[in-house]
Amino acid sequence: MRFPSSVALAALLLFPLAGPAAAAETLPAGLKPAVIAPLAVHSLMLGATRAGDRLVAVGERGHILLSDDQGANWRQVPVPVNAALTGVSFIDAKQGWAVGHDAVILHTADGGESWTLQQADPALEQPLLDVLFTDAQHGIAVGAYGLYLETADGGKSWTPRKVSEDDFHFNAILAPTPETRLLVGEAGTLFFSGDAGATWNRLESPYDGSFFDALVLGPQSFLIYGLQGNIFRTDDAGASWVKVESGTTAGLMGGALLADGSIMLVGAQGAVLTSRDGGRSFTTTKRADRVALADIVQAADGRVILLGEAGPLPAAP
User: Fold this and answer.
1) Which residues pair with 108 in a beta bridge?
2) First and final CA of the chain: distance in angstroms?
3) What is the DSSP letter of 33?
4) What single string gives the DSSP state of each residue in 246-295?
5) Which of 44, 93, 240, 249 could tie 60 with a disulfide, CB 3.0–4.6 Å?
6) Closest CA to 57 of 39, 77, 32
7) What are phi and psi of 275, to 5 degrees?
8) For 274, what's the count of Cα atoms within 13 Å in the CB-facing half-sphere?
């Protein structure tokens, strides 16, 4: 998911840029520290999460933004690389990881104030698109052309694995329970693991197009969504799927299960979808500015922040 803000977000996932490589102290050729930019808060942001009560957003040119006032104000922090960052995962208020182009993986131990480079590999020409940590030691990072890396030592070392014979992009990885994992990607790619990623089984897909993201609604209940506004729901861990009408053909890029039990999805052309019945039906609106949207994060006080090509934005009331 990551190009200049003028490019549609769907294309960002399907046609990633090439870039940087390697480990902590010395930057690989082609990588430079991210520039502290006055307009970073208005730049393309592609992922966000909570770190305790803090909000952390990541995006193009290595930009990482923090908010300590529920998303009202944001500040950019130094980052050792200028690769576009596509995903971020925190296990608590302090420990987090971010991933991006050039197979970059960053780590923070202070809630995002400072970041160290754990790994990068420009020669791969494969961006990482999502990252999942469930504790301080065990993590999985996934990305383009079947890229799949795992760590059991907090990211000090990363081991590549071949999950599929296809080279389709892996766009998102989730943990429905401590023991299970869900992996979604392009061309209907769906994999499920019952042993925390040790082994993977391909699920029969209800759609041959790309899934850009997914939401966990319960231990066996998930929503998957993506290209052309397609949404599907399962209540049996992917054994069967029901198509959910979205009311849009916009690519759906990100979503969140909100504190009040409602579900919100966002995507291209300013599409904002809301469900109040557990994802069985959606009301679809479009922002007046038609800004492309990539992700959603909810602040501790319940405020909803939308991330996309114009940076972090408050959701319309």
Assistant:
1) 96
2) 27
3) P
4) -S--SPEEEEEE-TTS-EEEEEGGGEEEEESSSSSS-EEEE-TT---EEE
5) 44
6) 77
7) -125, 135
8) 12
Output the six-digit token pair for 249: 């053909």
Token code pair at residue 124:
């791969």
Digit-coded pLDDT (tens) for 167-209: 999 999 999 999 999 999 999 999 999 999 999 999 999 999 9
pLDDT at 11 over 50: no
Mean pLDDT of 254-262: 98
Q: What is the mean pLDDT of residues 57-62?
A: 98
Structure tokens at 174: 């989730």
pTM over 0.85: yes
Spatial separation of the C-alpha atoms in residues 317 and 96, rounded to whole Å? 30
CA distances from 69 to 32, 247, 303, 305 (A): 30, 34, 10, 12
- The rounded distance, in Å, linking the Cα atoms of 156 and 268 is 36
**b/e sequence 113-150, b meaning 16+ C-beta within 10 Å:** eebebbbbbbebebbbbbbbbbeeebbbbbbbebbbbb
- What pLDDT was estimated at residue 6? 32
